[in-house]
């Protein structure tokens, strides 16, 4: 049985421990895809986005001690987003200096003119984070359930197939299908709630 991931504060405290590879693996598995998508939304190519991920992880590791764990002022999500945003601005500036006339100066100016997070950026970031958190949590709990039950959950909850049709296709009684779906939803909710304050600013 997979252990519940630790809460935001305890994971952040573990990240501060030298050599705690498990904490960094948990952190990276949740945040690398999110950072990548944010970079891609700003027009970064695949290789540049991969470099950005490494730069962000390095910046987090160097600065995690400065974040006040548990404080209102040190909300993790906003802190991480500002690191990502600053790294994107730096990458665009570096590329602009290298490739003159590429149009990147317009992107750089637009990013630089937003000293704080715009409502649109917050919305995009929150949606990306919640989507990534759902997929991350689903991947963690999937081995806990029978394949037919998991397929029923996924095709009815995510793909939108009607429960009676999915139950019949998978050879499950309607009662067993509803029970399995409820168990998986409850477990998914439980694991996501462990990270609920990661979504705060």
Describe this structure in words.
- The two termini are 32 Å apart.
- This protein has one domain (8-199).
- Helix 1 crosses helix 2 (21-41), helix 7 runs antiparallel to helix 8 and helix 8 (163-170) packs across helix 9 (174-193).
- 19% of the residues are buried.
- It is elongated.
- 70% of the residues lie in helices and 0% in strands.
- It is built from nine helices and no strands.
- With 201 residues, it is mainly alpha-helical.
List the keywords.
single chain; disordered C terminus; 201 residues; disordered N terminus; mainly alpha; 9 helices
Describe what is shown at a glance.
It contains nine helices and no strands. The protein is mostly helical and 201 residues long.
Write the layout of secondary structure elements.
Layout lengths: L7 H8 L5 H21 L4 H18 L12 H23 L5 H9 L6 H23 L5 H11 L5 H8 L3 H20 L8
Helix pairs in contact: 1-2, 2-3, 2-6, 3-4, 4-5, 6-9, 7-8, 7-9, 8-9
Low-confidence stretches: 1-7, 100-104, 197-201
Largest sheet: none
Distance between the termini: 32 Å
What is the helix tally? 9
Content of β-strand:
under 5%
The number of E-state strands comes to 0
Shape: elongated
| Category from helices, strands and their pairing | mainly alpha
Number of domains: 1
Mean pLDDT: 77
**SSE string, helices as H and strands as E:** HHHHHHHHH
What's the gyration radius in Å?
20 Å
Helix content: over 70%
């Amino acid at each position: 049985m997979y252990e519940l991931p630790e809460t935001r504060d305890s994971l952040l405290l573990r990240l501060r421990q030298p050599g705690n590879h498990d904490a960094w693996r948990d952190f990276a598995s949740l945040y690398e895809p999110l950072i990548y998508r944010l970079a891609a939304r700003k027009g970064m190519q695949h290789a540049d986005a991969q470099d950005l991920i490494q730069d962000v992880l390095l910046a987090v590791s160097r600065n995690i001690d400065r974040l006040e764990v548990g404080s209102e002022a040190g909300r993790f999500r906003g802190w991480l987003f500002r690191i990502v945003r600053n790294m994107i601005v730096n990458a665009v500036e570096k590329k602009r200096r290298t490739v003159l006339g590429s149009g990147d100066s317009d992107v750089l100016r637009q990013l630089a003119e937003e000293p704080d997070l715009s409502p649109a950026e917050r919305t995009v970031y929150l949606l990306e984070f919640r989507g990534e958190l759902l997929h991350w949590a689903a991947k963690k709990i999937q081995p806990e359930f029978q394949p037919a039950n998991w397929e029923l959950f996924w095709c009815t909850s995510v793909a939108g197939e009607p429960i009676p049709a999915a139950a019949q296709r998978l050879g499950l009684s309607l009662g067993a299908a509803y029970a399995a779906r409820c168990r998986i939803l409850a477990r998914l909710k439980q694991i996501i709630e462990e990270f609920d304050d990661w979504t705060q600013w």
